[in-house]
Amino acid sequence: MASVAAAELGYKSFPKSFEPAEKLKDKKILLLSTRMLMNIPFHIYVLRSIENELARLNLSLLRYTLSSDKFFENLKSYIEKSKVDGILCMEFFDEHLIEQVVSLNLPIVFMDTVFSDTAPNFNYDVVMMENLNAVKSYCLTLIDKGNCRSFGFVGYYKNCLSFYERYLGMRDAMFLRNIPYDPRCNILAGNDLPYSNLERLSALIAKAKLPDCFVCANDYIASMTLEALKMLDIPVPERIKVIGFENSPTSKYTTPHLSTINVDKTMLGKELVNALVNKMTRPSKHSKITYIKCYPVPRESTDNI
Q1: Following CA atoms 153, 172, 288, 85 in sequence, which dihedral angle do they give, to the nearest 10 degrees?
Q2: Domain boundaries, the chain
Q3: How far apart (Å, rounded) are the C-alpha atoms in residues 190 and 203?
Q4: Where are the alpha helices (DSSP H) in the chain?
Q5: What span, in angstroms and rounded, lies between the C-alpha atoms of 286 and 88?
Q6: pLDDT tens figures, 254-268
Q7: CATH domain 132-263+296-302 topology
Q8: Cβ contacts of residue 274 below 8 Å, gap of 6+?
C-alpha cells in the first residue's frame, strides 16, 4: 500500500515492492549452535517454532554444531558445499567465535549474544527476550506488595547478555526504591558448576548473606536453588522468595511451584526467522536488537505475588 500511494504522489524513486518469497526460493538456512540444543528444554520450543516458520516459507533447514573455533575451517567448508544462504545462531557466547562466524559475510541473526564490559560494536542482528524491564517490574511488585527489602542474584551474570540484563533489572528495581545493594547476598560463581551441584550450591548459599528474595538467572538455576534451600532447612517463601526466568514446563512442578517470567518461545522463534528473512531480502548496513515482551508468572515461591 505504501509503495502504491508513493507512486500516485509522484515519488518515482520509491523502491519497487516485491514478494519476499521471490527472493527466498530454494534458499538454505543453517541453524548453528555451540551445544546440542535438543538437550535444553527451553530451546526445544524455540526450535519447533523456527522449524514451523521455515516450513511455512518453504526454506530448507540445515543444522551444525560448532563446539570450538578449532573446527571453524570445517564449518566454512560445510557452508560452501551446502550453499548456505543465511545463518541463525543459538548459544553463541564466545566473542572470538562470534567474530569468526560474522566474518563469513552471510546474513546472520543471533538469539541472545555475548556479554562484554567493553561495549562491543554488534555488527549483526540479535533477537532476545526482554530481560531488564521484566525482572525490574517483578522485583518492584515484590518490594511494594511483598515487603522484600533485600535481593540477591543467583547465576553467572556475565554468561551472556540476557543474564546480565536480568541482573541489571534486579539492581534497577533496588535503585528505584532506595534499597541498598549488598554483594554478599549474591551467588555469582562462574559456569564451572556449582549450579548443577546441590552440595556446592548449598555451601555457597550458607556462606552468603540471605536476602528476602533470590532472583535466579533462569528456571534451572532457580529449581536447584529451591533444592539447596531445602537442604539448608530454609523455608520458601516464608523466609526467602525465589524467582526464575523462562517459564519452563518443569517450573510448575517444583516444590514449592516456581514463580518465573514467561518467555513466548513461539514468538521468539518466529522473530528469529523474520529477522533473518529481512536481512536476506532487504540488506541493510544497520544492525539491531529486537526484544520479545515477557511477563511475570507468580506462583508459590513468591507467595503467589
Answers
A1: 10
A2: 2-128+265-292, 132-263+296-302
A3: 15
A4: 2-8, 20-24, 41-56, 72-82, 95-102, 132-146, 161-176, 198-207, 219-231, 265-281
A5: 18
A6: 999 999 999 999 999
A7: Rossmann fold (3.40.50)
A8: 53
Pick left, alpha or beta for residue 58 (phi over 0 → left; psi -120 to 50 → alpha; otherwise beta): left
What are the grid coordinates assigned to 50, written together? 523456527
pLDDT tens-digit map of 277-296: 999 998 877 889 999 999 99
216: cell is 535466579
Fold that domain 2-128+265-292 belongs to in CATH? Rossmann fold (3.40.50)
The C-alpha cell at 163 is 543474564
| Res. 187 pLDDT band, cuts 50 70 90 | very high
Residue 244 DSSP symbol: -
Question: Could you give the CA distance from residue 165 to residue 181 in angstroms, rounded to a whole number?
Answer: 16
Dump the DSSP string for 119-176: -----SEEEEE--HHHHHHHHHHHHHHH----EEEES-TTSSHHHHHHHHHHHHHHHH
Cell numbers representing residue 195 in the block: 549450579
The predicted pLDDT at position 20 comes to 59
What is the gyration radius of the CA atoms in the chain, in angstroms?
22
Taking a C-beta distance cutoff of 8 angstroms, is the pair 177, 140 a contact? Answer: yes
Q: At what angle do helices 265-281 and 41-56 cross, to 10 degrees?
A: 50
Same CATH topology for 2-128+265-292 and 132-263+296-302?
yes
**What are the grid coordinates assigned to 300, written together?**
508459590
